[in-house]
């Protein structure tokens, strides 16, 4: 992939337990939208739980993410940037794969990377793949029922 950029970092998983609470915390998320910038967003992550943020950049290019010795640094184009709106990070390691949604329950993206520095309040920045690009890459759709 030398010299090329990616647009997604995503995967599929099979749940061990089929019971999932689809209505927490903003109701069932069945639609998607393109981020326009400035939206209030939330996510539920394994590490940080439910957090709130704001979209601070869209169509962000050349987001460099380190993947260790095996892959090295990969670069991503057309990404969404989110900063926290609370006095804590929007995301930390282990939150990758979280769905990022608007406060009205519309999906915007899939969390895939972040930094522990930066942002207006100094709690770091989070990077998100646009959800429609992710769904298309995986050949899937949101569950509607």
Total beta-strand segments:
8
Looking at CATH, which topology of the domain at 40-138 would you report?
A: Thrombin, subunit H
Instruction: Give the spatial strand order of the biggest sheet.
Output: 1-2-5-8-7-6
Characterize the largest beta sheet: strand count, sense, and whether it forms a barrel: 6 strands, antiparallel, barrel
Task: Provide the low-confidence segments as ranges.
Answer: none
Q: What is the chain-wise order of helices and strands? A: EEEHEEEEEH
CATH superfamily of the domain at 40-138: Trypsin-like serine proteases
What is the rounded distance between the termini? Answer: 38 Å
CATH top level class name of the domain at 40-138:
Mainly Beta
Class based on secondary structure composition and strand pairing = mainly beta
Radius of gyration: 15 Å
Outline type: globular
Residue fraction in strands: 25-35%
CATH architecture descriptor name of the domain at 40-138: Beta Barrel
Kindly report the average pLDDT value. 90
Number of H- or I-type helical stretches: 2
Amount of helix: under 10%
Explain how this protein is built:
The N and C termini lie far apart (38 Å). The relative contact order is 0.26. The strands form 2 sheets. Strands 1-2-5-8-7-6 form a 6-stranded antiparallel beta barrel. It has a domain at 40-138: Thrombin, subunit H (Beta Barrel). The longest helix is centred in the last third of the chain and has 8 residues, at 131-138. It is 8% helix and 34% strand. A hairpin with a 4-residue loop joins strand 6 (99-102) and strand 7 (107-114). It is mainly beta and 145 residues long. The mean pLDDT is 90. It contains 2 helices and 8 strands, in the order βββαβββββα. InterPro entries: Peptidase_S1_PA (IPR009003), Peptidase_S1_PA_chymotrypsin (IPR043504). This is Trypsin-like peptidase domain-containing protein.
């Amino acid at each position: 992939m030398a010299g090329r950029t990616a647009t997604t970092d995503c995967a599929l998983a099979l749940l061990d337990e089929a019971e999932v609470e689809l209505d927490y915390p903003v109701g069932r998320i069945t639609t998607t939208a393109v981020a326009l910038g400035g939206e209030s967003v939330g996510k539920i992550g394994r590490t940080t739980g439910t957090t709130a943020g704001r979209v601070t950049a869209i169509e962000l290019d050349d987001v460099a993410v380190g993947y260790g010795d095996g892959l090295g640094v990969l670069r991503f184009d057309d990404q969404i940037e989110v900063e926290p709106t609370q006095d804590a990070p929007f995301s930390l390691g282990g939150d990758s794969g979280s769905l990022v949604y608007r406060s009205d329950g519309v999906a915007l993206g899939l969390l895939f990377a972040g930094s522990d520095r930066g942002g207006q309040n100094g709690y770091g920045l989070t990077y998100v793949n646009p959800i429609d690009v992710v769904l298309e890459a995986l050949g899937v759709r949101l569950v509607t029922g």
